[in-house]
Amino acid sequence: MSNTIRAVVRGGRIELLEKVEIPEGTEVLVTPLDEAEFWLKASESSAASVWDNSEDDVYADLLEK
Questions:
Q1: What residue segments make up the domains of the chain, in order of their start?
Q2: What are phi and psi of 44, to 5 degrees?
Q3: Which residues contact 41 (CB under 8 A, 6 or more apart)?
């Protein structure tokens, strides 16, 4: 299983920003993101949810008329 969990570094420790159940001994990978990269990735999923939806097809139909 692979998923992304948001976290921050405070006092040299990684603090998760959401509640998750991770079994003791689970191996994890940590990829630090600079601030610009974080916002780019965050906005990518938001933009996809806005642009990639069937509800907007009605506007495309109107443009064809």
A1: 7-64
A2: -60, -45
A3: 33
